[in-house]
Amino acid sequence: MGEYQPAVMQDEYYAAIDLGSNSFHMVIVRVLSGSVQIVSKNKQKVRLAAGLDDNNTLSTEAIERGLNCIRNFAEKLQDIPPANIKIVATATLRLATNAKDFVVPAERILNHKVNIISGEEEAKQIYLGVAYTSANKGNTLVIDIGGASTEVIIGRDLQALHLASFNMGCVTFMEKYFPEGEISASGFEQAISDASNILDSDIDVFRCFDWEQCLGASGTPQAVTSILVKRGVSDAIRLEYLYRLKQECIDAGHIGKLSIEGLAASRQGIFPSGLAILIALFECLKIENMQISGGALREGIFYGMLDTYQKSDRRQQGINQLINRFHIDSGQSKRTQELAIRLCQSMCSQTNFCDFDTEVVTAAAAALHEIGLHIGFKAYNEHGAYILEHVDLTGFTKLQAMMIKDLVRLHRGDIDLAPIYQYKDSLQTTLINAMRCLRVAVLLTSRRRNDAIPEPKLKINGEEWQLVFPLDFKIRHPMIHTELIHECWLQHRAGWQLKLIEAA
Fold this sequence. Notes:
alpha/beta, Nucleotidyltransferase, domain 5, 3 domains, 20 helices, 16% strand
């Protein structure tokens, strides 16, 4: 028998490797029918940046840690077409005076070129990954705190407008300001102050841009969000939350005593330093709130390889993928979505409680409201919420995805306000308004025919919502009328006023 030769996967498989300063990551995706599906993720804490000395020489121990990791990665790369592989290295190998001592053997192990990218190129790739996975409106501020560098980008849609890479990261700051794992108030203040001074060189340019939203890409922002979720806080990241976490770190006194529910053990050792940098960014850029993006550098790498990938509407692409995957009736999805959007737009024109998220989450929840039918009709709204909690929803931020999940749960039956109360007050209003529009749209499209949708005018008078129908509405649609009467009662029990009016 001849020597075993591994079969190379078909051309639709791609691999991206990010040799970061804190962790090494490998992502393998499959591209099929315009859909990008992650089939494998590997991550290993290498702490490469911790191996840099004062002269930026990378230690032998750090090099060996990195090479041991990529020896594991190399096995899976054998199955990917070489043209579909891209490997990038970031801040630590940019800084290391002896980078070749790592790169040469790494390329030999991987049988592929390692690209040490500049800070500006890293920022561009991060923004591309965020833009593809978290569709935005207007200008967006994107922040990525790495192990040895922090990237800040202002962009619109797929175009980065202004970007900068700063030489500060959670690994390098941990070594400098929290030595031996000691966490002190003075260490925090010095780290925040020095981070602010580093940012000062370019901060005025970023302030010149007005941004609609701020997105954090993985790392520390994701860790903060995980903590908030564990505490039952369904909200964006805000400075007040960061200050509380800072005090909890100081109270612990040492990394070994840091016990914050929701903080992964693998993140614990560099959390205080990342938190200090994040606080400095919030203070210097006057950030009110930050949501979590769906992707970052790795996603930017492989989306950049997909020349034929459709770039128009990532949100709709994400929705279409789930419609196909869970066999949702696309016609019913579309008609419910279109009516929900019209009701939402009418509501927004008459109130002061709308923002970018309102129409976005209403439209998505309407399109996906029947996703739970894949499991069964009974309690299909609960099934749908469960599915949406465990799948990736391309084109939406983490917070938007949470709101969509809860809207799907609440689109029918008795109104349980408990999920809504987990959100900040302003987001509660957004969610309630979106839910009321969605529930009405679902009832009005229940005959599942485009020519059998009674479309009312929505009028809002203070606290009262009115659905104004033609005079023959009750005669032409007796079942829908009965169901709407019941919906008025359900909304009344929840504390809202909904009335049906027939007028000439």
